[in-house]
Amino acid sequence: MAYEPTAWKKGDVITSAKLNKLEAGAKNEQVGPAGEKGATGPAGSTGPAGPAGKAGANGKDGAAGAAGKSAYQTWLDAGNEGTEAEFLAALKGPKGDAGAKGDKGDPGEKGATGVAGKDGAAGVGVKAITLMTTDGKVTAGTATLTNDKTADITVTEKPAS
User: Fold this and answer.
1) Do 131 and 139 contact (CB within 8 A), yes or no?
2) Looking at the record, which segments are called Disordered (predicted)?
3) What is the pLDDT of residues 115-138, one digit of tens each?
4) Pair 124, 146: CB distance under 8 Å
5) Which tens digits make up the pLDDT trace of 69-128?
């Protein structure tokens, strides 16, 4: 029995019965392998087709279609009245009321204590001064600092003014 293809139309529903018919038809209509090339016919007989001809020139562009209506004009055509500004405002709709303000939230938990800063460098001060006198006058000395280093002191007399 020869396969009868389904003539599909827009809106047709694909059913399992129609798909099964297609599957069965495809199974029965399998094409076998190609046969051997036949011999060339005698002169004057209808032979193989010649080469394809050149492609024809492209056709001219069609005329431009009419411009469509604006949304505002379509709105007017539907029986509405008003200016274009009123139309645009109608698209946006009215502004809604502001929502109620919420209650103030509870305070957050206390944060962790920060890392302690580094101690600053210790200052150096004078721990003791030892003075030397010559002929009853202070002429030199040694200062012992709080870091236990020492510094020599030289004493000079200020000239009288």
Assistant:
1) no
2) 25-69, 94-119
3) 888 877 778 888 898 988 888 888
4) yes
5) 888 888 888 888 888 888 887 777 777 888 888 899 999 999 999 888 887 777 888 889
- Do 87 and 80 meet the contact criterion of CB atoms below 8 Å apart? yes
Place of tokens 């297609």: 22
Residue carrying structure tokens 């009868």:
4
The per-residue b/e assignment along 120-141, b for 16 or more CB within 10 angstroms, e otherwise, is eeeeeeeeeeeeeeeeeeeeee
Assign residue 44 a region: left if phi > 0, alpha if psi is -120 to 50, beta otherwise?
left
The torsion region of residue 80 among left (phi > 0), alpha (psi -120 to 50) and beta comes to beta
Rounded Cα–Cα distance for residues 154 and 92 (Å): 92
DSSP letter (8 states) at residue 29? T
CA atoms of 105 and 98, how far apart (whole Å): 20
Give me the count of residues in the chain. Answer: 161
DSSP bridge partners of 129 = 143
Q: How far is 102 from 41, CA to CA, in rounded Å?
A: 98
**Residue type at 30 in one-letter notation:** Q
Look at the pTM and tell me if it is higher than 0.70. no
- Cβ neighbourhood burial of 17 (10 Å; 0-12, 13-18, 19+): exposed
